Amino acid sequence: MAEKRKYKKRYCKYCESKVDFIDYKDTGTLKFSLSERYKIMPRRLTGNCKRHQDMITIAIKRSRAAALIPYTVTRKAVITNPFEGL
Ligand SMILES: [Zn+2]
Fold this sequence. Notes:
mainly alpha; CATH 4.10.640.10; flat; binds zinc ion
């Protein structure tokens, strides 16, 4: 293979665990859809469905406003890999 894919799983994690509501206070769940610099991961990489991606986007934006998730990260504070706990 010429190109190695970083994200193998293409199914929606939230559909699999039957999540109907994503809480903005639940940063552990939101972390799965955030990049190492706390940007929202695009759907083409995470494999989330449209419905859940919209819910995540709203929850993350609320969470940022409530200062639970940073808007920006300095170079030193970058966490290694948000997906390693999976
Ligand atoms: Zn879904």
